[in-house]
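Consider the following assembly input.
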Amino acid sequence: MSASGGATRLKLLEGALRTLVEQGIAKTSARSIATTAGVNQALIFYHFGSVDELLAAACVHGAEQRVSRYRERLAALDSLTELLTFARAMHAEERAAGQVAVLGQLLAAGQTAPALAAATSAGLALWIEELEGVLTRLLAATPLAAFADPAGLARAAAASFVGIELYEGIDPEGAARALDSLEQLAVLAQALQGLGPLSQRAVTHRLRRRTRG
Amino acid sequence: MSASGGATRLKLLEGALRTLVEQGIAKTSARSIATTAGVNQALIFYHFGSVDELLAAACVHGAEQRVSRYRERLAALDSLTELLTFARAMHAEERAAGQVAVLGQLLAAGQTAPALAAATSAGLALWIEELEGVLTRLLAATPLAAFADPAGLARAAAASFVGIELYEGIDPEGAARALDSLEQLAVLAQALQGLGPLSQRAVTHRLRRRTRG
DNA sequence: GTCTATACATGGATAGAC
DNA sequence: GTCTATCCATGTATAGAC
């Protein structure tokens, strides 16, 4: 890959992401991407073979870029409460950058395009992996540790995150209200962590019994 | 609207939904819808003016159909635990019917098409409205009643539901794991409801303090 | 209300010159 | 590796006959 070739590839990857954000999957085409990227349309097929393959590569490229951005900050978190506060800040950043929107567009497209499905799954997996690590660490300090599945929760959270982001695109006020309500629920986690030993044991006991039932 | 005219309109509405499910928004066009519906392509423009207007009408039409299907069953629920169990059953039914997939496709398309955004918001609102009513009723019996916002939670749940459904389309195993983990969290609600009065009061007290902080 | 035919735009993809 | 030119499929939308 020559220097200029690498540059064009990169322009196309970034152009594909920007086009998905600005015009949506429905209007993302070889021509629209090429225009956004400022390169010749035929180069998409030279470098990536097809539009879908470019989108697939762009998805993973974008996810890598964004996830690495948060790695350090996630490692510094000390409680579920902090994680929830951080999630809202991250949401705002990702909304501005448009990366979650990209996942939403590709998630929709992937429903009926296997090649895109695989790439989107890989992109989302990068987020999930990161989140799973943090959840494993933070849940250990709560009564939830006994029965919660960090891997499952990380997947649920990531998918929900994308869903809420898509919702925000069509109803910003509703999405804000949704996020507020989740933040309020955070006090539940806080309360569980802050309970006196006796009450906490009662809760834990109760939780244990229920999981066996 | 004549009888046959109404019949064609209906064929187009149902055809639009089926096309969205089977081919995704990217391959949903006047021609593909007309083929699915078994009617002439030009009739889309006669009855709805444009493809997007047909999609908008179909979204609301589909949501009305599906939501009314659950109204009675939702009214019969007696606890948050039951609601969560029911949610999983509903998820399976909607996945089979493809209605949540439709919302996902239109949610993605709506990000950059204001007319579709409005219709999708209206369709989703039907689900939210129903859910909000149930949540308001069921949360009243828990310590969460003091600070939880049913309207916000209903919005968060609906959006998350769509997100997880989209995720299921690209990673069925991951989605199953996500849903399992949420079901396990349901024991938390169960535990809160089943706590003895003393412990429950401790939790409630704790929660109250946190919301004021 | 429905059909055929058609105009015209956009999109995927390739050939071949440079 | 990049550009121009082009082929052909698909898509939106309309006109006009029935």
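Chain A has two domains: 1-49, 62-212. Ask yourself how this observation constrains the way the partners meet.
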